[in-house]
């Protein structure tokens, strides 16, 4: 582990959608972590049914109550946001942190938001040789804001909840990004719904499992005082009526059952992908394991060239060098169905051969 400040060497604003933005229609997308078969038709119907009410200002009370009920919390512990990305901006602007620390490699938007708000951010860099696993002792004791993902994007590590809660302190805000937790069977190691951890702030996104990245809907779970501070930093009516309707629908028992089924399917498809990647051998391709999210992190020689050849062969994958703690030899692969994975593995074999010259 080491700590560092940003020296400008990482593009914190680069996200997976950039890999498919221009010629994405011609590419099979393994760069973006949104589940491929979403939104489901029933959810599209619910959203479409809200369009007749667009003349009215959004009223988030029903959606807020639904999300609160889904986690067994009172409504004053819930804040709906325009995706988890807005929540990071609100935290950076509303909380008066003196020593913020972000545990990397992880989603870069929290650090970018903190920097934009004028904070000097320290990094705790987890290492490959440790399996990118958290050691709470690595986080400086005087850190009053700590951000960590679980399961972590891009490493796909699922940290034990008990280990994360060791980071909690009186006077410290502990932000846990659980954007991909509903893709973990049983949501084991989740902290959403916990009220016994001091300073805990949990972020959730509905864009990944439900394919709503274009709609922008997520939420924050925290103590009522923190929620009130974040809400004061929000503009009026920050979440649209279609997004509110989607949030309410995705918290319903039917949706939760469907998400649970999808999580098991993702786990099975991920196992198939990892097994195929292992066939390349440890000298040719390293897989970060155990992977627990809907994506897999790999390291291989000549990764930039492999990525370019994969594009020529019709596949987009996520470059890893924009994540602090990783370099140009890393790629992140979204989990897809077995037919797509088999096609990708064939293309990867060809791309590796071409890159080797």
UniProtKB/TrEMBL annotation:
EC code: 2.6.1.-
Q: Which SUPFAM superfamilies match?
A: PLP-dependent transferases
Q: Name one GO molecular function term.
A: threonine-phosphate decarboxylase activity
Q: Where is this region: Disordered?
A: 1-20
InterPro entries given in the database record:
Aminotransferase_I/II_large, NHTrfase_class1_PyrdxlP-BS, PyrdxlP-dep_Trfase, PyrdxlP-dep_Trfase_major, PyrdxlP-dep_Trfase_small
Which residue ranges does the record assign to the Aminotransferase class I/classII large domain? 29-348
**Which interval of the chain is the signal sequence?**
none
Give the cofactors, semicolon-separated.
pyridoxal 5'-phosphate
Homology family: Belongs to the class-I pyridoxal-phosphate-dependent aminotransferase family.
Identify this protein by name.
Aminotransferase
Q: Which gene encodes it?
A: cobC
């Amino acid at each position: 582990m080491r700590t560092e400040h940003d020296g400008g060497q990482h593009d914190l604003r680069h996200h997976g959608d950039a890999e498919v933005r221009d010629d994405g229609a011609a590419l099979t997308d393994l760069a973006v972590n949104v589940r491929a078969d979403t939104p489901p038709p029933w959810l599209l119907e619910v959203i479409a049914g809200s369009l007749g009410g667009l003349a009215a200002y959004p009223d988030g009370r029903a959606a807020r109550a639904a999300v609160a009920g889904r986690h067994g919390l009172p409504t004053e512990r819930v804040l709906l946001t325009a995706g988890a990305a807005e929540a990071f901006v609100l935290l950076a602007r509303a909380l008066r942190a003196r020593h913020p620390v972000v545990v990397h490699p992880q989603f870069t938007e929290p650090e970018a938001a903190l920097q934009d708000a004028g904070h000097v951010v320290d990094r705790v860099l987890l290492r490959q040789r440790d399996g990118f696993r958290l050691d709470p002792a690595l986080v400086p004791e005087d850190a009053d804001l700590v951000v960590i993902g679980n399961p972590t994007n891009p490493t796909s590590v699922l940290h034990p909840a008990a280990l994360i809660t060791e980071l909690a302190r009186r006077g410290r805000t502990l932000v846990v990004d659980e954007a991909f937790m509903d893709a973990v069977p049983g949501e084991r190691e989740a902290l959403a719904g916990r009220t016994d951890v001091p300073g805990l702030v949990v972020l959730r996104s509905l864009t990944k499992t439900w394919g709503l990245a274009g709609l922008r809907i997520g939420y924050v779970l925290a103590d009522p005082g923190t929620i009130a501070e974040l809400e004061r930093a929000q503009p009026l009516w920050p979440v649209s009526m279609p997004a509110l309707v989607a949030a309410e629908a995705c918290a319903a028992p039917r949706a939760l059952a469907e998400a649970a089924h999808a999580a098991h399917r993702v786990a099975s498809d991920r196992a198939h992908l990892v097994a195929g990647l292992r066939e390349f051998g440890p000298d040719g391709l390293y897989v970060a394991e155990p992977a627990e999210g809907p994506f897999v992190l790999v390291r291989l020689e000549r990764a930039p060239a492999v990525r370019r050849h994969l594009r020529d062969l019709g596949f987009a994958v996520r470059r890893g060098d924009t994540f602090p703690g990783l370099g140009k030899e890393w790629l992140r692969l979204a989990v897809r169905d077995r037919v797509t994975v088999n096609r990708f593995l064939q293309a990867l074999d060809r791309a590796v051969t071409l890159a080797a010259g």
